[in-house]
Amino acid sequence: MSDVLESTQVVIEQALKRLGYGQDMIDLLKEPMRLLTVRIPVRMDDGSTVVFTGYRSQHNDSVGPTKGGVRFHPAVTEKEVKALSIWMSLKCGIADLPYGGGKGGVICDPRKMSFRELERLSRGYVRAVSQIVGPTKDIPAPDVMTNSQIMAWMMDEYSHIREFDSPGFITGKPIVLGGSKGRETATARGVVIMIHEALKLKNIPIEGARIVIQGFGNAGSFLAKFMYEAGARVIGISDVNGALYNKDGLDIPHLLDRRDSFGNVTNLYPKTISNEELLELDCDVLVPAAIENQITEENAPRIQASIIVEAANGPTTLEATKIITERGILLIPDVLASAGGVIVSYFEWVQNNQGYYWGEQEIDDKLRVMMIRGFENVYEIHLTRKVDMRLAAYMSGVRKMAEAVRYRGWV
Ligand code: NAD
Question: Whose CA is nearest to atom 29 of ligand 1?
């Protein structure tokens, strides 16, 4: 099943049934409670006006305000934004954050827009969704092809609308505007913690462990850096144009030096292999860190990794999850593995609210505690309830929200 919304709904339903909830709870939680579609007119540099379509999806706010990134990408769809907001709820649940899930997106191609056009689009998006977002309602953050500069424009626009400085409206800001130390690297740091836990379970030392990473953007490039620094061998990396492979380990510092701001680097080298071949390399840990639906029932039987850690959202289909689990490959699912970003976003919001800022070490230590606790909870559910890791993660992620819904008397 390659429809990310439908496959998420299948697992949400299974998780709620296993937790003993009825159809009413399933009906409520398998869809976002609110979806806003907006049209954003943007004056382009040549004087013409282009009208962009954007979305903001809020899954459920029984636990607290909703939280999740804004994606700028040509392939954004309503269904994808809805699925992403549900995944954010699960991440927040696994990490035990006082949030529900939210997500936004604009159908656009930032690679073809100027700096000023991007600024006008970012400000226009905030004006369009301003009624339903805010520091105690719904808190955006960066996602695919949005960054701290875009967060800064969005925060500035929101502050103008509300007529007071509102750093807690959005996370992933530049440090000088109330951003948190460690936010930029948080997703990769969280993935590193999961890789360490998974390697321990498989009795594989990190020193010399063979790592393959699909995607060399924010998540993939920092992950490659941290793995390289930890003494692992990053033997394969890829971007949208292709993949590079060296069985003895790639020169990651050199590749990091040469990548562009969209995470492209392979076009500078003669390709060694394709993206499809990269996924099937013999390795210890495979990390999909690019896009959805990369591991499917077609290629899952040929995956040679002992461990798959999903840094990307939705890289593995449900059919592939079944095949991987049956083959004894340890899967650390996306809603657990990539929770580092939202955890440090939460720290940023807490620091904005209290007006007192923590050092990088403090952030890293707190992140580690939350990631490991999340991992232990999911792994215990996997063992005791005899369910695969994805279903275990969904059970862990949806439990608190369902309880909050019940206490509030909504269902
Ligand atoms: P990014 O835009 O910075 O980088 C994406 C990378 O994937 C680039 O190297 C790009 O070339 C590559 N890519 C794009 N299409 C591809 C394709 N068809 N085949 C192979 N490679 C392709 O994005 P990111 O922020 O690194 O996010 C990557 C994934 O991780 C996404 O699924 C995102 O939702 C997820 N994620 C990111 C964060 C975060 O904090 N950045 C947090 C949680 C989850």
Answer: 312
